[in-house]
Design goal:
This protein is α+β, with helices and mostly antiparallel strands and 172 residues long. The chain has one domain: Aminopeptidase. The protein has five helices and seven strands, in the order βαααβββαβαββ. The chain has a seven-stranded mixed beta sheet, with helices on both faces. Helix 1 packs across helix 3. It is globular and about 45 Å long.
């Protein structure tokens, strides 16, 4: 199995936008209205927004390649780039997505391990993420690898308020 992880740079912005749209639609499209999906996708993944995120020194994106094809991506945040105030000892996994055709290959674990590696390099004591309460497969995966639910927050899909569970993994 050939797996590689590569940090995204500004020149990757179009590929990042493409995989962001694709994986978000695959993951959530069947459970949300088309209007709310389109509103969210346009807000979160327009080129100006992605350029802003790629240029933020407190955020990093990574592509995961499976047999030389982009199979998914990871976005991590520290400091004030985190979507919730979690302090300087935390690293957020804001986005972690694998294309449907590459799921069940262990690629999510590679990306989690990349996030843990970054957190350890930056002397973080915990990693955390938000996961939609209805995304049962993802919740089960995170629990299996040592994350526990430590809270919840609101997430807006278009004009619909949804609940994300906050899940945390201690690194100490």
């Amino acid at each position: 199995m050939t797996v590689n992880i590569k940090q995204c740079i500004l020149e990757d912005i179009h590929m990042l936008q493409e995989i962001s749209y694709e994986t978000f639609n695959e993951t959530f499209g069947h459970q949300n209205s088309l209007e709310n999906m389109n509103a969210y996708l346009e807000k979160a993944f327009n080129l100006q927004q992605l350029e802003k995120e790629l240029s933020n020194r407190s955020s990093q994106f990574f592509f995961i390649y499976f047999h030389h094809e982009v199979a998914g991506y990871l976005k991590v945040n520290t400091g004030d780039a985190q979507s919730e105030e979690m302090g300087d000892e935390s690293l957020e996994i804001e986005r972690i997505y694998i294309k449907n055709k590459f799921q069940k290959q262990g690629l999510g674990k590679y990306l989690i391990n990349k996030a843990i590696e970054i957190a350890m390099e930056w002397n973080k004591k915990k990693i955390w993420l938000g996961v939609w309460e209805k995304n049962e497969n993802a919740i089960a995966f995170y629990k299996k690898i040592g994350f526990v639910q430590t809270g919840a927050h609101s997430f807006y899909m278009g004009d619909e308020e949804q609940t994300d569970f906050i899940m945390t993994k201690s690194l100490m």
